[in-house]
Amino acid sequence: MILIIDFGSQYNQLIARRVREAHVYCQIDAPWISLGQIRALSPEGIILSGGPASIYEKGSPSIDPGIFDLRIPVLGICYGMQYMVDALGGEVTKAEKREYGFAELHMKDAAGLFEGIEEQTRCWMSHGDTIRRLPKGFRITASTPNTRVAATENASKGFYGVQFHPEVVHTPKGKKMLRNFLFRVCGCSRSWTMKSFIKESVQEIRSVVGDKKVILGLSGGVDSSVTALLLHQAIGKQLTCIFVDNGLLREGEAEQVKGLFRKHFKVNLRFISARRRFLNRLKGIVDPEKKRKIIGRTFIEAFEGEARNLRGVKFLAQGTLYPDIIESRSAFGGPSAVIKSHHNVGGLPRKMKLTLIEPLKHLFKDEVRVLGKELGLPEDLIWRQPFPGPGLAIRIIADITQARLSILRNVDRILLEEITNRGLYKRLWQSFAVLLPLKSVGIMGDQRTYEHIVAIRAVTSTDAMTADWAKLPHALLGRISNRIINEVRGVNRVVYDISSKPPSTIEWE
Ligand code: XMP
Fold first, then answer.
1. What is the pTM assigned to this prediction?
2. Domains of the chain, with CATH numbers?
3. Terminal Cα-to-Cα distance of the chain (whole angstroms)
4. Would you name the residues annotated as active-site residues?
């Protein structure tokens, strides 16, 4: 495995992605990891990430310099290189010119990191500090017009540093450089595959769970579905999945989950019909935060009620992913402000004295999809766009009624049919409809109409933290609008949402 030390770079997860793509397992850890912990992990190599700090600033992040005596190869990227140079006796100062963007990189020779790469290539720079003096034993291996020490090495010790970012696509040969580090310098083998992951996880789950029982809240999304199948493979009927039908799902969704998991995969599934309970409690509620709180509370209550009926349950499984883990323990502060209260089962484990089990917690989303495929999940579920826990309730900008839900379900189905037929479904982060139960005047045939408005929302994004409104083709928007107004009674106007996040959010409530 490769250990990546997080000095706060925005590209950290990208470094990890690159390593994993090369079929080498890696883990991101904070700089205060101890030498003992590093020895226990016994990595084949260590990558020191970039970061926003300056090495000569007070309080700039640092790791125990004892890592340089462990006989483990080290690659420092940007701040990571400056840290290594400083720790080993070199000197880093402020650069005369900040360098940001593309730069021409001239290699001194094609060895080490640069094996098999032509003498001149482009690289991506983003730094304000530069190396004045190298530590003993180091030499310059590449320069750019503005940066003399764009890359350095002490090959006999296995220490390499680059000022630029090999992990970003703007450094076209960056992947090759990282692979040179992994395979030529560290001698890693290509052992990280989803098949090997399944084998190891199944063993681990069995040894942790023993003969006890596990419960899991299945939502029909990709993360909880993959978690369910992985656990099912490991412990079969010791797993019970609980699916709460809150009456706020899209058309056919509850039935699909039931059919797939219970009939097809033969998973132990408790299906709770709680439609009426949810809708009764939501009656007359317009305030978005109130809706979310009611839905969250009712969900936990329904889930807990069912879980209490089961004997011998010791574990609660969740489909937590690696980015959540990294964010939540990041030393440099992830996005922490609660803009909307998200609904989850967070309070449950402590209340019910359950131990959490999170078998996907080292995986990235795209790895979860590959894993899902390996476990036999159908394509349409693997590529399902995110759907919020509170469901359609936060896409009806008013109080929730059966009639409104029914209109929105119909609209949503048409929208998704059209988006899918145009081959755009996978390329959009989310595409959905919002019902605005305002009325506006229209004309159909010779008749005046006075009906609701529907807004279409389609966004592109990589992580939902920011999002751009999708530039859908006008012809497609026209077709969607025509079909909705013609086929869904109660709607006579369709508008397109052209706001990005920030300042808007993806969902309307
Ligand atoms: P916003 O609207 O905050 O949404 O830009 C960001 C992403 O989160 C999803 N979302 C939720 N997911 N429970 C969830 O599981 C929730 O309560 C919730 N609210 C928003 C939203 O669909 C988008 O992908």
1. 0.85
2. 2-185 (3.40.50.880), 194-382 (3.40.50.620), 402-496 (3.30.300.10)
3. 43
4. 78, 165, 167
